[in-house]
């Protein structure tokens, strides 16, 4: 009997191009493989013990003879490569044709955004991460106009210095923009990015908020809530689902803080789903490697906290091939590593065509009704 599941979704944790990656300009992408090669080998012993080395050739990561967990690979049916579409599919909701995502910062989008905000914006460009803050931050301080851009996967960002636009006001603007842009783009996410500092030393703060439309259909979180299970969202999880189906949301945006929160929840959350998003992969290779190693060290703390009935699942929401000349979100498979007391060990879960299989598995394990998409692999996890 499974009573509590800890789901860690590592942002950008890709392990190889999906069959349609070339359509997105991502043919041959493999986030973890390239990161390991450039680093001349990654030291991730706890990921290794869980079976990560069986999912590809990653320098420094060995395929263990007797892994402590079950391992497999998840693909994505949704046509996209961002956190919104990735998390929704993990939670059992597949965005179908016609529910299009935003893709480029067009003149039409810029005009609609400025109309929604009631003022002009700076930037209005496409960027990988938060480069527009460095480029337009000084001009923003003088003019008071927010900075706007779209990333390589269709998420719209709205940034402002906290001394120019208070975070609460920026949140209100982003929320309003999301409401009004929905008529133009059905599936949209607007991220409010408050920042501090001076020109040349700007830095984003922990007061970021993601404002996304609600999933058009029911997700795993809805089904678990209806089954009277607790659902705790850590990181940006609550925002990605507009709070729907989430018992409590803890917005954190540093990997170490997220891991601290998750470990601390073992004494507070006796059942249900602890669902956390961890920011990991970004264009700064040294920071990415350091963050991965930091998470790997903390995995031992998590595993030692697991009790009979607990399950730990680690996966990703998309790729982020930071080693290519033009880094950014990439259309990739992600790992699925599952472990827990009295669960099977060393079972190859195979390559799943949709991440919705994971949502279906979690739902079945916690007694929720069946989701519309995905096939459960719960039987494969049962100890033999």
Write up this protein:
By secondary structure, the chain is of the alpha/beta class. The chain folds into 2 domains: 4-96 and 216-381, Alkaline Phosphatase, subunit A (3-Layer(aba) Sandwich), CATH 3.40.720; 107-212, Phosphopentomutase (Alpha-Beta Plaits, 2-Layer Sandwich), CATH 3.30.70. The chain is built from 12 helices and 16 strands. The chain has helices at 31-38, 45-50, 83-90, 107-117, 131-143, 167-181, 220-226, 237-240, 255-264, 285-305, 356-365, 378-381; strands at 4-11, 70-74, 122-126, 147-150, 156-161, 189-196, 203-204, 209-212, 231-234, 248-250, 272-279, 310-316, 319-320, 329-330, 334-339, 348-352. The strands form 3 sheets. The chain has an 8-stranded mixed β-sheet, with helices on both faces. α4 (107-117) packs across α6 (167-181) and α9 runs parallel beside α10 (285-305). The longest helix has 21 residues, at 285-305. The radius of gyration is 20 Å and the shape is globular. Belongs to the phosphopentomutase family. One of its GO terms (biological process) is metabolic compound salvage. Residues 284-367 form the Metalloenzyme domain. GO terms for molecular function: magnesium ion binding; phosphopentomutase activity. It is an enzyme of class 5 (isomerase).
Summed up:
The chain is α/β, with parallel strands linked by helices. The protein has 12 helices and 16 strands. The radius of gyration is 20 Å and the shape is globular.
